[in-house]
Amino acid sequence: MEIRLATLNDIPSLSIIENECFIHPWKDSDLAYEINENPVSTVNVLEDNGVVIGYISYWITFDSATVAKIAISKKYQGQHLADLLMKEMLDDLYAKRVFSVTLEVRKSNVKAIGLYHKYGFKDIVIKPHYYENGEDAIYMVRKEVIS
Hints:
alpha+beta; Aminopeptidase; 7 strands
């Protein structure tokens, strides 16, 4: 397994993962923006023998960060591979002296909530009807990012 920065060449693979994992997936143009144009965005991909099997996208603004997306291809889920992406992100944030990170997660996404709790995220508030389909989000924060 290898983690590296995403390139525009990864968009077809990322698009497949987006469509597998999200109700409202990012379009290719959204992915291209995050990879190549958004000045605060970092997109890391997880590869297995040269095949992109997951990714994490996060935004760093000054001394805080936000997890935009994290996903593992359905074929590879259940193997704790998202842990590798979370650890890589936290190491990067620590190195850049970013000491808090936030995210929103669907209230129904029990697996993701468990992952975030494992990495020290705390539930802060419920955001009612946050998602396009009316589902609530849990707003979570992790302070004092330590590698």
